[in-house]
Amino acid sequence: MNITKLYRQRLIPAECILLKHDIIVAQDDEVLITKWNTINPKTQFSHGCSCYFFKEGIKVSKMYRADGSLLHWYCDIVDYSYDEAEESLTVVDLLADVIISPEGSMKVVDLDELAEALERDLITKEQMTTCLRNLNHLLTLFYRDKFDRLQARLDSLGL
């Protein structure tokens, strides 16, 4: 798989945008690694990097403040769609997210949006099942002190 274009698709709000300013740092059959600046100015963070784990359905991002200090790790549960003709990857945000502080505390967020998406038929049964399984996998890694396996892909590149 050769990826030259990256799209982010959200269910709430409904949108699909080309991440034209994201820089692809590395890619192989298991991951895509990017670095980026925020699309819209944010007060808490200004830039970051992401590792898209294809098999796990997880996107792990390091979010940095403007001064370069780490704000937190942000993990999205996602699904992927690859268009070979366009060499594009569309990453569908399945709404459930996990935030991990630099000190190691963890918080699961946006489950209310996941429920709303189900109620409004914005997410399929298959996507919901995938989301819950991948969220469980991520939480299991965290609870077993194995989140560092996911962090290592970005850390090894100095990102």
**Using only CA atoms, what is the Rg?**
15 Å
Kindly state the number of beta strands: 9
The separation of the N and C termini measures 23 Å
The fraction of residues assigned to DSSP E strands is 35-45%
Sheet bearing the most strands, described? Answer: 9 strands, mixed
Broad structural category: alpha+beta
Number of helices: 3
Shape: globular
Secondary-structure element order, N to C = EEEEEEEEEHHH
Helix content: 10-25%
Any low-confidence stretches, pLDDT <50, length ≥5?
none
Q: Summarize model confidence as the mean pLDDT.
A: 95
Q: Can you describe this structure?
A:
This protein has 159 residues and is an alpha+beta fold. The chain is 23% helix and 42% strand. The chain has helices at residues 111-119, 125-143, 148-155, and strands at 5-10, 15-18, 23-27, 31-37, 47-53, 58-64, 70-83, 88-100, 106-109. Strands 1, 2, 3, 4, 5, 6, 7, 8 and 9 form a 9-stranded mixed beta sheet that branches. Strand 6 (58-64) and strand 7 (70-83) form a beta hairpin.
